[in-house]
Amino acid sequence: RSAEPDAQPIFHSDRGFQYTNKKMYERISDAQMIQSMSRVGKCIDNGPMEGFWGILKRENYYGRKFTKKQNLTDMITDFIDYYNNGRYQRKLHVLTPMEYHKQYFQAA
Do the beta carbons of residue 96 and residue 84 sit within 8 Å? Predict the structure, then answer.
């Protein structure tokens, strides 16, 4: 579903113990994802992801009931696609994140 067929999903988190243990690393690797973490002592690194999850919850989670894990997973997957390819953002000059990304690299 990615506009970038060779793109590899990234799992970003803070440095909480639940994200830094070996089992979590194995799960991320098994899912063929790249692990990304905030820098030590730089909680501001996590701000964009905290903002993203806040938008997802506000627009698609609060007020809904998910009775199956697959329904929740599908909602998150669909929202990520929408956020990247269909949700226009003023801070990106009224472009979607992918449109902005492509425009940025065409100019480079």
Answer: yes
Distance CA 91, CA 13 (A): 23
The one-character DSSP state at 3 is S
What is the residue extent of each domain of the chain? 38-107
What's the mean pLDDT when you consider all of the chain?
A: 90
* SS3 letters across 69-104: HHHHHHHHHHHHHHHHHCCCEHHHCCECHHHHHHHH
Contact in structure between 38 and 46 (CB atoms under 8 Å): yes
**What sign does the dihedral 21-25-30-36 (CA atoms) show?**
positive
Which pair of structure tokens corresponds to residue 53?
């999850």
The whole model's pTM is what? Answer: 0.70
Q: What is the pLDDT of residues 23-68, one digit of tens each?
A: 999 999 999 999 998 888 887 888 888 899 999 999 999 999 999 9
CA–CA gap between residue 6 and residue 12 (Å, rounded):
19
